Amino acid sequence: MKTALLFPGQGAQFAGMGKDVAEQFPAAKTIFEKANKIVGFDLTKICFEGPAELLNTTTMSQPAIFTVSAAILEALKTFPPVATLKPDFTAGLSMGEYTALYAAGLITFEDALVLVKLRGQAMQAAADSTSGGMVAIIGLDEEKTKALCAEASQSELLEPVNFNCPGQIAISGTKSACERAEQLAGQYGAMKAIRLEVAGAFHTEMMAIAAEGLHVALTDTNIANPGNTKVISNITAEYYSSAEQIRDGLTKQLTSPILWQKCMERLLADGVDTFCEIGPGKILTGLMRRINRKANIVNLSSAANIAELSSKSA
């Protein structure tokens, strides 16, 4: 049996996330307290109470999601049958890759949270200095999505960047190009074109300034070489083989497409038979069901989910 732990990225957040886990598991509560001290403000209150306007910002959502995911992971370790389960693989969607590295034991909680906080700030600053956006295109394949981008761009930046699952690709670029793509999508056969509530053109060259700042911080951070637990890279769908490769991958991630569907297909091809989504929401669970309906995926986003898993493992 091979197990992969999956961790969500920005967009999974909601006010109230992690509250039930912290209330029922002292180990999870300790993670939230630790996070407050590291970031220097009451991140726990923002996770539990919002307001949504603040929680949804790039600077806040990223450290918040990381902390909730880490708290759920810690709660799982309190059950002996689950605690002894060592994942064969970990993967995280965009920002979730930091949680995947933490879960694999390659980076400490404090270092990962500091990096995630900096990442969110750097991406927000890059977005503020440019005029970009993202649109989710539903119902088109890669070829048609690229053709849509080519027509809508009108020589401006617009490209497919999030290959989430069959029929769901997010495009990213200038605001005006995104608006044209929304209007043209139907002509290419798209079922929907949904403007995403993000600050800027993530995973494009418009995030180059953020990538530069993040690279400096990554260079100064202690990251271990991969061991028994393999971590898959978002931008290559290959497994990291060294700490330097991890630094490079996390830097390039800001300006490169996220190949989530290929990552999941690689894990399936390599024999993973159990996937566990750990963190707020059910986004990755939904994507996996679109990628492979037969895949066994367990969602662990609440105290009730954890209790159910522990009873099955007992």
Characterise this structure.
With 314 residues, the protein is an alpha/beta fold. It is 50% helix and 15% strand. It contains 15 helices and nine strands. The strands form two sheets. Strands 7-2-1-8-9 form a five-stranded parallel beta sheet, with helices on both faces. Strands 4-5-3-6 form a four-stranded antiparallel beta sheet. β8, α14 and β9 form a beta-alpha-beta unit. α9 packs across α10. The longest helix is centred in the middle third of the chain and has 20 residues.
- Number of beta strands: 9
**Would you list the SSEs in sequence order as H and E?**
EHHHHHHEHHEHEEHEHEHHEHEH
- Specify the structural class: alpha/beta
Return the average pLDDT rounded to an integer: 95
Strand arrangement within the widest β-sheet reads 7-2-1-8-9
Low-confidence stretches: none
Radius of gyration based on Cα positions: 19 Å
Dominant shape: globular
> Helix amount, in percent?
40-55%
Count of individual helical segments: 15
- Biggest sheet character: 5 strands, parallel
In angstroms, what separates the terminal alpha carbons? 17 Å
Short description:
The chain has 314 residues and is an alpha/beta fold. It is 50% helix and 15% strand.
For this entry, give a set of tags.
single chain, 314 residues, alpha/beta, 5-stranded parallel β-sheet, 4-stranded antiparallel β-sheet, 15 helices, 50% helix, globular
Which helices and strands appear, and what pairs or packs with what?
Elements: E1 3-7, H1 19-24, H2 26-39, H3 43-49, H4 52-55, H5 58-76, H6 80-83, E2 89-92, H7 96-103, H8 109-128, E3 132-138, H9 142-153, E4 158-165, E5 168-174, H10 175-184, E6 192-195, H11 208-219, E7 230-231, H12 243-252, H13 260-269, E8 274-278, H14 283-291, E9 297-300, H15 303-313
